Amino acid sequence: MAALGSDYTNNTVLIYSMSGTHLVETVIKSHDRSAQHIQVGIMPSELKANDDCKLLILSSPAPCEYQGKIKKEGGNFIIAMFYGQEKESRASARYAVSTPAMIDTLIVDNEPYTLQNPIKVVLINISTSGVRFRAPYYSFEVGDEFQMHFDVSNSKKMLTATVINHIDNDNTSSDYGCRFF
Asked: CATH says 95-180 is which class?
């Protein structure tokens, strides 16, 4: 996982209200690592100076989450970041998304194998430790490793994960819980 001091310039960030409502997906235009603040391409109109928010930065190799506070500096709005831990039954807070993705590579014995017919999936939620997605019925088994590609805010992202559980919804789709590695 990327560390607190990583440079997040040009990474996609999902901005949420403190109650967990998704506000916007945008790109980080600049990141001042010493001051720990970012400027984003689109500032949510719902947020004003001194408001708190939650951030999920889609950094590589795994997303990072922060809490932030909206500040005004030199006439521009910035988001001051500080690391926050969510209090819930999971180690990492989950953020709801509804984004199409493509799994086109399976990893077997640490070797990537490109699928002739990539599998179209829909992301359901994402956290700093993993992702849940919906795929055609019984596409994967527990232990399968894969690379997933998707676009967010006109930026291509790739995640690598292992299936750790699945739930069959009906005979047409299954939901898969996966851990990043």
From this structure: mainly beta
